[in-house]
Specification:
With 327 residues, the protein is α/β, with parallel strands linked by helices. Helices cover 41% and strands 22% of the residues. It has two domains: 7-115 and 307-326, ATPase, nucleotide binding domain (Nucleotidyltransferase, domain 5, 2-Layer Sandwich); 130-302, Nucleotidyltransferase, domain 5 (2-Layer Sandwich), CATH 3.30.420.40. It is globular, with a radius of gyration of 20 Å.
Length: 327
């Protein structure tokens, strides 16, 4: 047994990247590896890449004999009890994939599978705030919007393990169609995809902006990062679009504040890197729209673990599962 004691392997499976980290039970990352997610997203090819990335990480850490378990965080509808990816919008063609058992069989190590945003909430709670609050919501805002909920000091997963799909609450019944098929979802109005869509729409209608110059005239390259850059440079359309995004983001936050009455909401994901440009206007909307008692009780700020929320959430999930087994 080394100075680190037992270690845990966390895997964050995304549509573009696979992140693997070897960490201690205190959340200290000892080694890590990244691989690009293969395209097309054939399950067998991606699973082979996961195997390879895990093997390289374990080899670098030289601590396989001390591995307590492997945790996997994946986007989409996840059946944690069955260990299956039921459906994942980031991984087309993935339906009822028995990812947990496949990895467990390969390495002979206890393996656990959960939704990435749900586990990110657990990671932030365990290793970010160190369990100092009892009610926390984690929100990731990037291509879409996902979330995880800590209620009364426990990860809330609902009756079938799929609670936390906050990106698909309806904000505007007459709004744009979401990728999930519904109309007016929070994700369709306040995500990076929504921001890019509105930018393209305004440019197509002839609104003057420097956004088009930043992508050399190629509108397919317009994304949230480009709009944010234009806003920082003073572009009026970009600033207006982000203001609209922040408003809708605030409306969704107000709903969560009223429903869950959390002490803390942590915001992660690529769009969250806009910082105060997004959060401060959104917080003003919360103060205006949510019940005062709940609005006064909540703190809303950037995620503490940054891009490591999900991979450390997978680590925390292994620890929680082992505590449950011992009980």
């Amino acid at each position: 047994m080394s100075e680190h004691g037992e270690v845990i392997l966390g895997v964050d499976l995304g549509g573009t990247k696979i992140a693997v980290a070897l960490a201690t039970a205190q959340g200290e990352i000892l080694s890590r590896r990244y691989s690009l997610t293969p395209t097309p997203t054939n399950p067998d090819v991606i699973i082979d890449t996961i195997f390879m990335t895990i093997e390289k990480t374990i080899s670098a850490g030289k601590l396989k004999s001390q591995l307590l378990g492997i945790g996997i965080a994946a986007a989409g509808i996840i059946d944690s009890d069955a260990g299956k990816v039921i459906f994942s919008p980031n991984l087309p063609g993935w339906h009822d994939v028995p990812l947990r058992d496949t990895v467990q069989h390969k390495f002979g190590i206890s393996t656990y599978l959960g939704n990435d945003a749900t586990l990110a909430a657990l990671g932030e709670w365990c290793f970010g705030v160190r369990k100092k609050v009892a009610n926390l919501i984690y929100i990731t805002v990037s291509t879409g919007i996902g979330g995880g909920i800590i209620a009364d000091g426990k990860l809330y997963t609902g009756s079938r393990g799929v609670a936390g799909e906050i990106g698909h609450m309806t904000i505007d019944v007459n709004g744009p169609r979401c990728n999930c098929g519904n109309i007016g979802c929070w994700e369709a109005l306040a995500s990076g995809t929504a921001l890019a869509r509105e930018a393209v729409k305004q440019i197509t209608q002839g609104v003057p902006t420097s956004i088009i110059e930043l992508v050399d005239g190629d509108m397919s390259k317009i994304d949230a990062k480009v709009v944010f850059l234009a806003a920082k440079q003073g572009d009026e359309l970009a600033k207006e679009l982000i203001s609209q995004l922040a408003y809708y983001f605030g409306v969704g936050l107000a709903n969560l504040v009223n429903i869950f009455n959390p002490e803390l909401i942590l915001v992660g994901g690529g769009v969250a890197k806009m910082g105060d440009l997004l959060l401060q206007p959104a917080i003003k909307v919360v103060k205006k729209r949510a019940f005062r008692t709940s609005a006064d009780a909540v703190e809303i700020k950037p995620a503490l673990l940054g891009d490591d929320s999900s991979v450390l959430g997978a680590v925390a999930f292994v620890l929680e599962q082992n505590i449950a087994i011992q009980l």
